[in-house]
Amino acid sequence: MPPSADSRGSAFLDLRPFRASSAFTKLWIGSTLAGLGGQLTIVTVMLHVFALTGSTFAVSMVAVAGLVPMIVAGLYGGMLADAFDRRRVALAAAVITLLSTALLATLTWAGLETIAWLYLLSVINSAANSVGMATRTAIVPRLIPADLLAAASALNGITIGVMVMVGPALAGVLVAATGYGLTYTIDVVLMLAMFLGLWSLPALRPEGEIVRPGLASLVDGWRYLRRSANIRTQYLMDIIAMTFGNPLTLFPALGTVLLGGGAITTGVLTASVAAGTFLSSVFSGRASRYRWHGRGIARAIQVYGAAIAMFGAVLLVSTFFPGADASTPHLALIAAACLALAVSGGADNISSIYRNTMMQAAVPDTMRGRLQGIFIVVVAGGPRVGALYAGTLASLTALWFPPLLGGLVVIVLVTVLLQRLPRFREYDALAPVA
């Protein structure tokens, strides 16, 4: 019986994908280091824009400007990955990212950087990264056995945890200590690691019928998704979680209005989510061997909803202890909020392990790129709809209300879906069906 057939074994991170494939190992190392560098640049650009403009609106527009190009590039990148050699597509995306970051560093060293250049190069980076991410994800099932895909997804959680925990903090330290130019240059150096994993790969042309990029290819992907009830359901559950259970947009106000501690509290809350992601991957050994991935996705999202509701409850309790400010934070309540957010990050990561594995195992090779591109739309759009939900509802009610209500809504909606969709509930990793 394959290791994924039950949940026995070590609770610690399953490292067998490293032993099974040196190509996967190199790709993982390269993606982790390049991802860390990418986080350096994302945060540094925001700091740079604020230094040049003094406007938080200008900073927020960095993310807004890159949203549509990221979605379009993700969709088109998925089509490219299903039509051409994936190694070449991923290399081309990495080269574009490297060159745009190198130009950003050069302009900064020369003192020629402008807001327009920062926006333009950020958009190019965002688009190229979307193409690279869709392509690299489609590559993984060609490098390791199917029974190790869940373990490989858990290793991806380590990458994300390191990126989000270390990247922003390191960017702040480097900018303060060395300036913007050297920080961008460090990203260029780290990004070179991506070529370590990609250059040594063999040719990886898609298997099966190939549809050239264009409207016909995109329509073909959407038609496949319409026939794939399990994939559609996991997309829907993720949208529910990100729409009603994404309180990140509230964090800046919490350090000022409710919990105290100012910007430090905002950073600690954000890091707590990443810490939960990291720790859940470290102890993902048994989770990665669990075979009922439909149930695993639903249960993890239910835990996620409960954690977000608990976070909202902590914020509600904080309203009974007024007087917090930047210099007098409510440390006990901040700790409780961080614990709730760490649980949410861990649960979201476990859900992601099963979702990624289902995508990679159940979707045929010739469709993987396009489905990953569509998934980028889900990943990019859900949190932004969630930010609109949380921000609007908080402005009409109170800061604690959106997460408390949203977490409960997530639990109820996912429970209803799980009960009404027996095919998804009985999804078996040993016999994957999209």
TrEMBL record:
Main location: membrane
Coiled-coil positions: none
GO molecular function, one term: transmembrane transporter activity
Listed Gene3D superfamilies: MFS general substrate transporter like domains
CDD domains per UniProt: MFS_MefA_like
Keywords annotated in UniProt: Cell membrane, Membrane, Transmembrane, Transmembrane helix, Transport
Cellular component, GO, one term: plasma membrane
SUPFAM superfamilies: MFS general substrate transporter
Topological type in the membrane: Multi-pass membrane protein
Protein name: MFS transporter
